[in-house]
Design goal:
The chain is mainly alpha-helical. 68% of the residues lie in helices and 0% in strands. The chain has 11 helices and no strands.
Amino acid sequence: MLLYPFLQPVLANNQPPDLARSAEMPLMISVLVGLCLLVLILETQSRTANTRLIALLGVLVAINSALRFLEVGIPGPGGFSPIFVLIILTGYVFGASFGFLMGALTMLVSALITGGVGPWLPGQMLAAGWIGLSAPLMRRVVVQFNWTDKPQEIYLLTAFSILWGFAYGAIMNLWTWPFIVGPAGQSWMPGIGLGEVLRRYLAYYLITSFVWDLMGAAGNAILFLIFGRPILRALRRFHRRFSFRYINVDVLESPKGFVG
């Protein structure tokens, strides 16, 4: 979805980037919404999730969508957005599937209530979904170094949010960059090698997006340092309360098999 323009031998880039992507939007949105529904179905059928966790996901998506509504009403500096803290922490606590759903559905629902529906929406859903999807990777580091409920845990997640502050912007640029006509040293042209593509994109990113994404990364870090620990504790409390273990009924019914 993001990279196919680079695979075309000839690309007509004499039209605005948003218009170039507009024809793809209905199919892409349908595919992504269908994927989200499939993940929800698989989650509800698994032995590690239940309807209460799905309901909690809906509440968190609603809260995050409201935060994005405030972002639109009171815009912050550059690429600052308050929505990524919950996306990261939801994926970190509840797992990759929930993290992907949190990111993708936040972008979809918030776009509907803020009027932000456009050809860029599928890219936003994908990129935000990947943020939540990758968050559980930090759990391995935390467990490895025994940082659970320690300040180092929040510092690691803060660094992770800073990294995604830049990565999200870099990914979203790929949505329109192949269609933009600009200076030769910053524009993509069919047939150029991979090294030249990377060099031109880096030049384009540094000139047009770095400062914008720097504000987003700094905002993520500030929000994590202030609110990260209490939100993480609340999500863990919900996770413990809503999770349950399945018990083998046959064992319980057998006096010999019952252990206690």
